[in-house]
Amino acid sequence: MLGSSLDSSQLWEALYQTLLMVSISLVIGALIGIPLGILLVVTKKNGIWENVAVYHILNPIINIFRSIPFIILLIAIVPFTKLIVGTSIGTAAAIVPLTVYVAPYIARLVENSLLEVDSGVIEAAHAMGASPFQIIRYFLMPEALGSLILAITTAIIGLIGSTAMAGAVGGGGIGDLALAYGYQRFDTIVIVITVVILVIMVQLIQSLGNVLAKKIRRN
Fold first, then answer.
1. Would the pLDDT of 4 be above 70?
2. What residue stretches are annotated with the ABC transmembrane type-1 domain (predicted)?
3. What CATH number did the domain enclosing 166 receive?
4. Taking Cα atoms as reference points, which of 182, 187, 161 lies closest to residue 98?
5. Segments forming the whole domain that contains residue 185
6. How far apart are CA 101 and CA 94, in angstroms?
7. Any residues with CB less than 8 A from the CB of 107 and at least 6 apart, and which?
8. Phi, psi of 177 (to 5 degrees)
9. How far apart are CA 69 and CA 92, in angstroms?
10. Which pTM was predicted?
11. What is the pLDDT of residues 105-130, one digit of tens each?
12. How far are the Cα atoms of 35, 40, 41, 155, 161 from residue 108, in angstroms, in the given order?
């Protein structure tokens, strides 16, 4: 027993659920968010693949989803969640709103990272006759890689915090454990344990992201 009402097996199960939610939603969110972030940069005015119509459609849509607090988004898309996974409760159900939440978040982070790339790099690529795709693949993305790693690190940390909120509606994971055993049963030990676990996770991820980004920037 780790506390007055918590068994170690429950703690490990909750940790597994949290890691599962974060990893799956991050992968799917990145597959959606990274291309969206690239499109925002290349289709903007004076972009390498300027398309004002596309930019002015994507930009407000991403802004709308980014402005919705996760706990509200979690409840608002319950019908969509049920359509995708057949239920609105549990770990699988929590992955859907987490993905919807993190995809536009990643898009903005990617956009900011790419905008940091020196315009001289793009100009040099144009001078070499590179196509828009080649500029993105061989110049823009490699130059922004260090910043992109930090962006993904930030997204992961945001997801960890969101999984804790998902516990409020039975999403499973560390947050659900803290609410069910710590808050509702007034078990302070459980609250402390879950907070320590979340802090350690965030510190480890941030440290790893910093090390990788620093190594890439040196190279």
1. no
2. 15-206
3. 1.10.3720.10
4. 161
5. 8-218
6. 11
7. 32, 33, 34, 36, 37, 40, 62
8. -65, -45
9. 20
10. 0.90
11. 999 999 999 999 998 998 899 889 88
12. 11, 9, 10, 10, 18
